[in-house]
Amino acid sequence: MKIRIIKGQNEGQVIELGNAVFTIGRELDNKFIINESGVSRHHCVLRFVGDEWFVEDLNSSNGVQVNGVRIEHGQPLKPGDVITVFSHEFELLGDGDEVPARPQSEGKPAPEGSRRQAASADSGEAFLWLKIAALVVILGLIVFLLVRILRTPTIGGETVQTPAEAVEQAQTGEPAAPQILCIEPPEDAPQDMQATAEEDVEEPNEPAVEAPAPPSFQANYQKPAETKEQPVRTEGSMLVESEPSGARIVLDGKDTGLKTPGYLKRVRQGRHRVELSLEGYEDAYFQVTYPDNLPSSPTRLRLSGGSLLVKSEPSGAHVWLERRLLGVTPCLVRDLPQGRYELVLRGPGCEPHKEKVTVSEQTGTAVEVSLTKVLGNLELSTIPADCKVFVGSVLYGVTRSQGGRNESAPLYIDNLQAGDVAVRVEHVSGVALNGRLHIPKGDTLRKTIDLKLPTHRAELQDGRVIQGRLLEKNQAGDILIEPIGQQPERIFNPQLASLRELRSDEIRSLLEESRKSNPSIGDGGSSSSSGAMEIVELEALLNKSSEEEFNASKTGKQFRLVGKPQAILPDKGNVVNIFFAKHIKCQVADLSPEEKDKLMHEQPRIVVVGICAGIRDGIVTFRNCALPGDFD
Q1: Radius of gyration of the chain from its Cα atoms, rounded to whole angstroms
Q2: Is the preceding peptide bond at 291 cis, omega within 30 degrees of 0?
Q3: Of 71, 79, 307, 359, whose CB neighbour count within 10 A is largest?
Q4: Over 80: is that where the pLDDT of 599 sits?
Q5: How confident is the model over 400-429, as a mean pLDDT?
């Protein structure tokens, strides 16, 4: 069996198939190489199975067609079938077929692909003969014009005006000088003919004027200016990339001295072989054709046998094998013997991670690990905006307004230590709230803190003025406003004379006046100890109850106490004992240094939530206590 190339490179070539496997593709190990981007590395294969030839698509991108129909699996072939591989077409020939002529079975219509090829060939041949005929006509016309131009014809013994003379007459407006045609008899002519000729010629009375030489056609002919052909671009640059980068680039067997990604300059037109080599990876090679077929994407390198590549997210983690540091991710390890190992990855701000790997001499091993962060993030919004945000004692930023909304735009704080952190939110008016927030590991806590500050001043048609926190404003202009320490009040638009935002100094003055008239009101206009038991109330309960009655009715229940600490003493570990009185003790754990310092020096009124452990040795103890803060 043979195949003939009827379209593509080397058109008309006949290739013997024999009984071997015949592969077609872009790689160099194929029997027939098509270096085009639309052809896969191993596109298709022709096999001789039993007594038939089959063509099989090797999962190519653009597929294989037989007689114009795309095949899905192996397709049997017969002489005359046309196989299409991207831009190339091949015709299958039998062993007895003559090479110049394409076989056609008698009484059997040719395949669709063959008919298309024949029609295309006939139309191409007719068009060729048409061009030849047109060229012959044009050449004949050119020869005719040249003969007419270079020849000086006479009609009836009179001189005919040449084209050059006609041009001169048209330019000067005067007729060209006449040409005198003198005919002398030959020397061997009879005497009477010579005499007759002499008698016929009369001497003129005026001296003879020598006729000017006939104008030369070549003198008027201007040679067209020679046009320089544009030089064909035969050299240029080419970008070579690899994944990973850093591979040595060899072009046509010569080391370029460059590493990927690199620009190869002065690349000559034509086919070239590019080789890439990187320690720990198998060498890669491919062919390019400049400038038609250049690499469009980085070449992916494969790990060589015995190599171990360790990556992590985030990168920069230390890779340990027992007490030996192998490197920092991403790292390539090549000196480990074949076997199984347990690696430990320690990344900045991440928990240690153990990973079991296998090193093989036959194939490379790649490991990618996602590390768990011990840090977290905080996304904090405030009502209203323009609030300073402190975490611990560090100022992290100021919340900003977002176009007329009460709630501010979020302030994003990343890489905080996971766990409970002390947070302070301070408005520009001086009002502040303190509390604790729990930052999750490797995640983001989204929190909105409402300082419950008065924000607006409403003047009514009846002359009343209401200052408070604007809770709602609808499209009709009706508002819902909450005065400090009072219930919200709805005001309809017809009742409203004006509405404006309060300035920071107005908010501060309004809060000071409210606290003077009602000491239970907190900084934000409400009591942070709402629902809590005052220490004096607890002391009264202890005085009127016996120890047995108190323990029986109160042990194991949760209390919310508010008061001013009298003493703060350390206990075991990170536990602190807060004494509100000699016989009332609250045990609080995991206080930050800032919170301890504030309790020991400022000693403000605080709220403590804990579980009553009963009275023992005359002291009532509350365990597992926490300071909920103003916004908990």
Answers
A1: 51
A2: yes
A3: 307
A4: no
A5: 85
